[in-house]
Specification:
The complex is a heterodimer.
Chain A lengths: L2 E7 L2 H5 L1 H11 L7 E7 L8 E6 L7 H11 L4 E6 L2 E6 L3 H11 L4 E6 L2 E6 L3 H8 L8 E7 L14 E4 L2 E9 L2 H10 L9 H14 L4 H11 L2 E9 L2 E6 L8 E4 L3 E5 L15 E3 L7 E3 L6
Antiparallel strand pairs in A: 1-8, 1-14, 2-7, 2-8, 3-5, 3-6, 4-5, 9-10, 10-11, 11-12, 12-16, 13-14, 13-15
Chain B lengths: L2 E2 L5 E5 L5 H12 L7 E5 L16 E5 L14 E4 L15 E4 L15 E4 L12 E7 L13 E6 L15 E4 L10 E4 L3 H13 L11 E5 L8 H9 L3
Parallel strand pairs in B: 2-3, 3-4, 4-5, 5-6, 6-7, 7-8, 8-9, 9-10
Antiparallel strand pairs in B: 1-2, 10-12, 11-12
The chains are: A alpha+beta, B alpha/beta.
Chain lengths: ~300, ~240
């Protein structure tokens, strides 16, 4: 099972209440994924030269002001926002590579959920309802968001195994399905220097996209590569700085439905998650075709 | 609770006010109650699953909006109409009666249907009429890949195009496609469209309420019967001689 949702705002009215819409979509798909929930939301982009990082701590007990002081000794740190216990967003005036290297060396206890200029990723091994409340998802504003409700099949129920997975700067992946060749593919990707934190099959798909993009493929080419190199069932939704893309495997075992109005574009595993959006009854609704890349956002595939 | 409309005597169920279980229980109860309304409207379906599944009565049910999975599954005798799109498995295992979808249908529409008529006014996605066992399925638009996979009996009419692997491992179902076929599945071949098939098609289109499509413009596809080794005499022999 598992449920995926995504919403891309085309109007300020939707962007102002993006978290609320995404939360309602996630709750509709609780029955498809009661184990864990997560959300990637693109909001409040930081200026060029700065990097925004979503950090989380496995135990939830972190002295965030102390993390801020340590960071401030190394970088100019405009802000440390504590979102919930164990979750904070940090903005540093430094490039992503520099910031990530510092974190890996000085605070390896902190997990980097996402890095970029606008992305923030939150995920927890709790029910979608608990997740939405704990992280205060409904209060967030933003341009677009991808979310996931998980029913684990291929690996353990852990926060690391929850989605979305970061696949590079301002990039993320959510996956509904299961991959059969993830062990072999993980080994090949490890030889290419991609690092994995779990035995999770979706993390391998994320690592595969990270690798293809790192090697210079466009997002469209990287997704098309999945059709050849991944064996298994999948509906993928990939978030980028300014939009999102959707791909289903050629057999299309896993569901997906899309809808568009003048105010938003959305994807979900089931229509009931779209039905809660304003104007859904009059939306253009369709099922994405298998093995075809769909995308929204001006430069999403560039 | 349900409110009767005195002019048409259509009973209304609003899924924003009542649970799905109450809705379906009302439809099932009408089967054994001759005094119950024969005409029903379901409001605010909101993509919920299994709406109007398991009806066994000559009811008319109109669903005003999009539905989730397995809508009108196992239908017997009822005429169900969905004024919207359907999720996976609409009219799965339909036994008799009719299910009309005014929008598009997702995967596995009319799967394993044994009798009755399923009409999709829009498009149907992958695996339409999979394992069909005697129902008739008429799609005004196009269908996705693996249509009529392992279909055993019944008829599938597609006024638009068919996706890849049409009729893979087909048994004795008859397939009619007016547009292009992306590819035929194993053991599925094109066959001559004879007069008897045109007559059959005309009747099917008429029953589906499709008046603007010429029955002679279809191509017929069926099993080449090389993949399966079924012989009716074997069935009779094995039934009489246990082994």
């Amino acid at each position: 099972m598992c449920g995926i949702v995504g919403i891309f705002s085309k109007s300020p009215a939707i962007a102002d209440r993006l978290g609320e819409h995404a939360a309602r979509m996630l709750l509709q798909l609780s029955s498809r994924g009661p184990d864990s929930a997560g959300l990637a939301i693109y909001r409040e982009p930081v200026p060029a030269g700065s990097t925004k990082l979503s950090l989380s701590a496995p135990g939830g007990e972190v002295d965030w002001p102390a993390v801020g002081r340590e960071l401030a000794a190394a970088f100019a740190v405009p802000r440390v926002d504590v979102i919930a216990p164990g979750h904070a967003v940090v903005v540093v005036e430094a490039g992503a590579e520099e910031a990530l290297a510092w974190l890996a060396e000085r605070r390896p206890d902190l997990r980097v959920m996402s890095a970029g200029r606008s992305i923030e990723i939150y995920k927890e091994a709790v029910s979608p309802a608990e997740f939405v409340t704990r992280l205060g998802i409904e209060t967030l504003q933003g341009s677009h968001a991808l979310g996931h409700t998980r029913m684990a099949t291929e690996s353990h129920v852990t926060t690391e195994g929850a989605h979305p997975f970061s696949t590079g700067l301002d990039l993320c992946l959510v996956h509904n399905g299961s991959l059969s060749n993830h062990n072999r593919l993980r080994r090949s990707l490890q030889r290419e220097g991609i690092v994995f934190a779990t035995e999770n099959d979706s993390e391998v798909a994320a690592g595969y996209l990270t690798w293809r993009l790192r090697e210079g493929a466009s997002l469209e080419r990287a997704l098309e590569g999945c059709l050849e190199d991944l064996d298994g069932f999948y509906t993928f939704a990939v978030g980028t700085a300014d939009g999102f893309a959707v791909l289903r495997d050629p057999i299309a075992c896993k569901p997906a439905v899309m809808a568009e109005t003048d105010d938003w574009v959305a994807i979900a595993s089931e229509y009931r998650a779209l039905a809660v959006l304003p104007g859904a009854a009059d939306a253009h609704v369709w099922e994405p075709e298998p093995a075809r890349v769909y995308s929204w956002g001006t430069t999403v595939l560039a | 609770m349900s409110t009767a409309n005195p002019t048409t005597r259509a009973e209304q169920v609003d899924l924003e006010l009542q649970t799905l279980r109450e809705c379906n229980a009302s439809l099932h109860a009408a089967a054994g109650d001759p005094a119950a309304a024969r005409s029903w409207r379901v409001l605010n379906p909101g993509g919920r699953h299994s709406i109007a599944a398991g009806i066994d009565a000559q009811l008319e049910v109109e669903i005003e909006g999009h539905v989730g999975y397995y809508c009108a599954g196992m239908n017997q005798h009822a005429a169900v109409r969905v004024r919207g799109n359907c999720g996976v498995g609409v009219a799965e295992n339909i036994m008799s009666g009719s299910v009309v979808v005014e929008g598009n249908a997702s995967q596995s529409a009319a799967a394993t249907g044994r009798g009755g008529l399923v009409v999709v006014r829009g498009d149907a996605a992958a695996r339409c009429a999979i394992s069909l066992k005697g129902a008739d399925v008429v799609v005004r638009g196009s269908i996705g890949h693996m249509g009529a996979f392992m279909a055993q009996r019944g008829r599938l009419v597609v006024c638009g195009d068919a996706g890849d692997a049409l009729g893979d491992s087909l048994y004795e179902a008859r397939l009619y496609v007016r547009g292009s076929v992306a590819g035929l599945g194993a053991d599925c071949v094109e066959k001559e469209l004879r007069d008897e098939h045109v007559i059959e098609l005309r009747a099917l289109l008429e029953r589906a309420g499709i008046v603007d499509v010429d029955a002679t413009s279809f191509r017929r596809y069926g099993s080449e019967r090389r993949l399966y080794a079924f012989d009716v005499d074997d069935a009779i022999a094995s039934a009489s001689t246990p082994r």
